[in-house]
Amino acid sequence: MNFEPDEEQRLLAASVARLFEDHGAQPSADPVRQWRDYRDMGLLGLPFAEANGGHGGRFEDVMLVMEAYGRALGQVPYPAVALLAGRLLEAAGGPTAQALLAEMIAGTKRVALALYEPGRRYRWDDPATAAECDGEGWTLTGAKIAVLGADRETVLLCPATTAEGLRLLAVPAGTAGVAMEMLPTPDGRQAANVRCDDARIPAAAEIGDPARNPALIAAAVDGAIAAACAEMVGAMERLLGLTVDYLGVRRQFGVAIGSFQALQHRAADMLMAIEQARSMTIHAVAMLDAPAAERTVAVAAAKALVNRSSRFVGQQAIQLHGGMGLTAEYPAGRYFQRLTVLENLFGDTGHHLDIVERAGV
Amino acid sequence: MNFEPDEEQRLLAASVARLFEDHGAQPSADPVRQWRDYRDMGLLGLPFAEANGGHGGRFEDVMLVMEAYGRALGQVPYPAVALLAGRLLEAAGGPTAQALLAEMIAGTKRVALALYEPGRRYRWDDPATAAECDGEGWTLTGAKIAVLGADRETVLLCPATTAEGLRLLAVPAGTAGVAMEMLPTPDGRQAANVRCDDARIPAAAEIGDPARNPALIAAAVDGAIAAACAEMVGAMERLLGLTVDYLGVRRQFGVAIGSFQALQHRAADMLMAIEQARSMTIHAVAMLDAPAAERTVAVAAAKALVNRSSRFVGQQAIQLHGGMGLTAEYPAGRYFQRLTVLENLFGDTGHHLDIVERAGV
Amino acid sequence: MELGFTEDERRFRAEVRRTLIEQVPERIRQAVREEKPLPRAWMVEAQRILNRNGYAVPHWPIAWGGRDWSAVKRAILAEEIDRAGVPKPLPFNVALIGPVIAAFGSEAQKRRFLPPIANLDLWFCQGFSEPGAGSDLASLRMAAVREGDHYRVSGQKIWTTYAHKADWIFCLVRTGQGGRKHEGISFLLIDLRTPGIEIRPIRTIDGYHHLNEVFFDDVRVPVENLVGEEGKGWDYARYLLGQERTSMGNVGFSRRRLDRVRELAGPLLDDPGYRRRLTWAEIELKALEITQMRVVANERPPSAGPDPKTSILKVKGGELLQTAAGLLLDALGPEALTAGFPQAAAEEPFQGHDARSALVSAYFSSRKYSIFGGANEIQRNILAKAVLGLGKAA
Amino acid sequence: MELGFTEDERRFRAEVRRTLIEQVPERIRQAVREEKPLPRAWMVEAQRILNRNGYAVPHWPIAWGGRDWSAVKRAILAEEIDRAGVPKPLPFNVALIGPVIAAFGSEAQKRRFLPPIANLDLWFCQGFSEPGAGSDLASLRMAAVREGDHYRVSGQKIWTTYAHKADWIFCLVRTGQGGRKHEGISFLLIDLRTPGIEIRPIRTIDGYHHLNEVFFDDVRVPVENLVGEEGKGWDYARYLLGQERTSMGNVGFSRRRLDRVRELAGPLLDDPGYRRRLTWAEIELKALEITQMRVVANERPPSAGPDPKTSILKVKGGELLQTAAGLLLDALGPEALTAGFPQAAAEEPFQGHDARSALVSAYFSSRKYSIFGGANEIQRNILAKAVLGLGKAA
């Protein structure tokens, strides 16, 4: 075991930190420009094999990037596009997926995985969205919700039920019959609800195959969960930093409120919650290459604990900031909002505990 | 609603407080003498109708008595004998039960309900103990555990399975074929594990009847749980008092440790836990006369919350006492032990939450 | 001792419930149940209905519209109002400034203010907190300098709920220096239309606009708007804080939220983990209901200041609302991900947010229950010191 | 970065596990698993086996039996020892006094003490705490007055674990006055057979006798038993506290307790509420295991004093042992009601308690994990101040 980043990782962490903090300092900056910055720094290709046009980064590298992203409250949908949809494309392989991946890495096309459907909570493996193939192409009907990273230019990867099992279809958002509603997320970003009504796409738009798709998607989602855990750790770390700063500055009854023991102990509890979350994130990342059953349990356990830490740290940070923490202007509230979204993303605490328990651990 | 004791209740509370504190001051005093004191003060007859030789006290009166008992860490098995077994006798009625009850009230005979069996946790309604009647009498075989209030002179009320349902048999502990092992409870009292091997008792030893027994026992147990809740509230109250005293006396770093805010807040949390426990005890007591389904849910909810408060208050009291709390000599530890026993008695927190949830609340 | 509700109390509850459901329009109660912010006009409409029934100010002197109801009945009333989804009578009016004017105001002030306050014809907001004087209220700095028949008032108030909807503000101001910090504080009523007052919104993380900063730049306030005596403001504020606490635990509000959890959670109600969280919340609520009644039944003269045990209601009640909000959020599942809200929410009337957004807002906004009105840390200080007697020697 | 265990580390773990199971008698490991206190002779027997394998003092200087193993490997070793139910090498010997003598003792002291300390031929106990000097160690008062080639020592130590089993005690004593409180403290080794020493048991709520008060009445201690320089005792104590923390989180012990929960809980494992508590404990344990490794891997010179992040291990590790003890207690159900223990438990060897009593004892005794060795409140102070930098200005 060795938790020290090597020289290359230190460089990577330092440069992404600089970039993300720059982006954060200009919140209204052009998202297209920011996406180009990601590409130029090699982040879009980071997690992909060199054979696939990527940079051959390891899961550990992604973890460092996502911690920095979390600390800086990154706005561009890098995790959804590159770390979830992108990795699914790489794992699926085949010409359609490879071409899409190449465009994604080049920054010329965005992809997003349409995982969830109305009324099914976090279940994605038995979609109500149905697809039929008539030889020439696919006809797709159904609804998807909460597609992060999607806009009207995106290629949506849609799981759909067919008689042969779970298909994965690449549907450009502009396809006729696809209606998209862009809605605000609780942390002020955008996500799409999507309806397909007899949307027609060519036969070649299929990626993966019914036999492998559930396993491919599960692996991609687990990777994205580990990345979300790292993002949460980064966000919690910064939020604790903001809180400690505030405790040192804010005065009441003639002294800095950071001198009150009850508040000191709360901050210590936040620190412990974050350190335990960081450890579970490390565990999840270390297990991403393990056999699927072990990987899934490790990732679910990690998300459950990171979620619990996040809810505690987020709520207590607001508490320790007092009224200031409730204002939209002060950054603490935005971190709390982001953490709230990330807790929900890919399954809340109860969902992941259920997975751990069903596995008999 | 009116939470103020009336004049008579104030008098009762004051005199039992005096008696129990006196008993507590002489821990090695003669238990026979103490039992006589209970009788002389009218406590043995307190909860029973005047028609049955009792004093016609209300549940509220019992609550006041049990709070005082809890505060003083009462040692004699008053709750097990009078409030559980005694009330079951009264509810069952009939000559055998009435005669036993009269002797119990007179202080000449002790009765105890043998509720639990090995390996069945808190289930008492389907005993493995079996009884057969041959016209002349009953033959009883089986094992009972953790019978509080029992000694070798006690008449044991034993639920037993027969072809006709659940019988309730009054078995003198001295009956041939009854083996009794007296074991220490974790709070330093005694409880009995009992084995009956073909123990013969007369046909008249039956009380209640199979059609009513489950309901009778359930009602008696619910009453005893409400009494245990009151005892726990009294014990927690005193334990908090001991803790607050200690915080004011014990000095560290040149000041009383009660001036540390983190410890003050812990004490405030203990106070809140106790007040909520007291409220649920009131709720349970107020519902003892309600229809069985409502009564059982109210009592289970109360025990669950009182248990949770008790675990928190007990553990934190020890924590705030530091090493002193761990010593057998200092009283805080004895209250912690008592509370631990009472949490377990009649079902732990999970058991009662299950009851509440099964009722669909 | 009578540990349950009496027959009379049960009848009273049933009557209140029936009256509220019959008289308060469903559109209002529905919006409240859905946690949507209400248009000002709806709040006024609801309070006038309550006032007509004697439900707005039952704790006031009978001469000014009060009723001779026991504290337990008043608590039942408050619980039923919340539970039915009827907006509470505006607390700044009925629970705070009204009783202060009734106790310490001049006859002219009583006649001028009490009836419209009860009926919400006049809307008051509360000007206590300042930047740097939140929990430590005595360090407030907003100054009122007497000049003939006016005060000239300058300074700033913050966290002022509904200042943008209000007609008047009651303020603690500093009219004297020296002595201990809480001496030299006076209690002023100020018409918000007076020149020199500027109200700036504070946007909050729930996406709404409830809170404001209020700036006073050389504002002329007639001396007749001084309540009681100059320099006694701290006493009146203490009196005010000792006022009607019958709904301090927010029992009815939590009841309404948990009912909503059951409506929305669907299959989650069969999930053992979620179910257990809900079970605990239900049990906590039952305990709180009784604790609330116990504190309420222990009636104290208002001059005794707040009963320190109300701190229990404040802490536990707030935590329960937060727990319930968390259950609502989690009930949404991934649907919450598209249930955000515009960064600057539109002004009233409420529109543009669906039911889901209102729940996400409620989750964020519920953090306030442990912050405003004396943070939970302050409440625990009070419990430790005033109830347990800790830390006095140190 | 290598976030998982290396092949070499896995091999090491397997080898340690095999060795422990092969060499340490099952009767010893069974008693440990059942949470029963061990006879002194068994503890000595186990430590000698560990020492023979290089497992007792791997962190010591190689000259005195240490091994050149990485901190991660030493942590694996500690975890496996606990997990296998092998009694830990006596911490007072191997983790506390040994390293201090190795670093600051004279050559004669090293030769005299280190080998028997490693092999538990000599049993040391720790004389730091005094009545009135627990967490606030610097206010200790036990005095040592130099008279020629002896000190005359008078005073009292308290909470002395195993003093009744020990041969020697290492003490902080006051040899000088004036200056700051922690100046004038020296570090003495005292033979417990010296006249004037009285050991009185402190019975604890778990029914056992682990703790003692030790009274010193004009006890003559040869000057050669002074460690290092007079007046430098505080520095040595700090060094001591910065020593081997590879098992601070008690990861292996918690693993063993949770394994036992699974053995004993039976049908409760299907109870959703109980199950969830166990699931959380398992997840917390996994997190703690990695946090432990992260702290351990961050090797610091012992002179830097304890890494403040070890406070996390202390708090979280102790809480987890307490949680596991609660799960064990609750697994007993009503069987716990007759699982008490005599008020004054019999001396060793352990007898008269069945497996259930040992679990009830473990529940009570587990409260100590958040009290001794620096109470959790002190650990949180350390985290707030030393890691987060809070409260320094105040």
Automatic annotation (TrEMBL), chains A, B:
List, alphabetically, the InterPro entries matched. Acyl-CoA_Oxase/DH_mid-dom_sf (IPR046373), AcylCo_DH-like_C (IPR036250), AcylCo_DH/oxidase_C (IPR009075), AcylCoA_DH/ox_N (IPR013786), AcylCoA_DH/ox_N_sf (IPR037069), AcylCoA_DH/oxidase_NM_dom_sf (IPR009100)
Looking at the record, the residues that make up the Acyl-CoA dehydrogenase/oxidase C-terminal domain are: 227-359
Q: Where is the Acyl-CoA dehydrogenase/oxidase N-terminal domain?
A: 7-95
Tell me which SUPFAM superfamilies the record gives: Acyl-CoA dehydrogenase C-terminal domain-like, Acyl-CoA dehydrogenase NM domain-like
Alphabetically list the UniProt keywords.
Answer: FAD, Flavoprotein, Oxidoreductase
Question: Looking at the Swiss-Prot or TrEMBL record, what is one Pfam family this protein matches?
Answer: Acyl-CoA_dh_1
One of the entry's Gene Ontology molecular-function terms is: acyl-CoA dehydrogenase activity
Name what cofactor the protein needs.
FAD
Q: Which domain of life is it from?
A: Bacteria
Similarity annotation: Belongs to the acyl-CoA dehydrogenase family.
**What is the official name of this protein in its record?**
Acyl-CoA dehydrogenase
| Protein source organism | Rhizorhabdus histidinilytica
From TrEMBL, chains C, D:
Q: Where is the Acyl-CoA oxidase/dehydrogenase middle domain?
A: 125-219
- InterPro entries in UniProt: Acyl-CoA_Oxase/DH_mid-dom, Acyl-CoA_Oxase/DH_mid-dom_sf, AcylCo_DH-like_C, AcylCo_DH/oxidase_C, AcylCoA_DH/ox_N, AcylCoA_DH/ox_N_sf, AcylCoA_DH/oxidase_NM_dom_sf, Mycobact_Acyl-CoA_DH
Has UniProt tagged this entry with the keyword Ribosomal protein?
A: no
This protein's UniProt keywords: FAD, Flavoprotein, Oxidoreductase
Which superkingdom is the protein from? Answer: Bacteria
Among SUPFAM superfamilies, the record links this protein to: Acyl-CoA dehydrogenase C-terminal domain-like (SSF47203), Acyl-CoA dehydrogenase NM domain-like (SSF56645)
**GO cellular-component term (any):** plasma membrane
Q: Which residues form the Acyl-CoA dehydrogenase/oxidase N-terminal domain?
A: 6-119
GO molecular function terms noted in the UniProt entry:
flavin adenine dinucleotide binding; oxidoreductase activity, acting on the CH-CH group of donors
Its cofactor is: FAD
Has UniProt tagged this entry with the keyword Flavoprotein? yes
Domain Acyl-CoA dehydrogenase/oxidase C-terminal per the UniProt entry, residue ranges: 231-388
| Family from the record | Belongs to the acyl-CoA dehydrogenase family.
- Give the protein name, as stated in the record: Acyl-CoA dehydrogenase
What is the source species? Answer: Rhizorhabdus histidinilytica
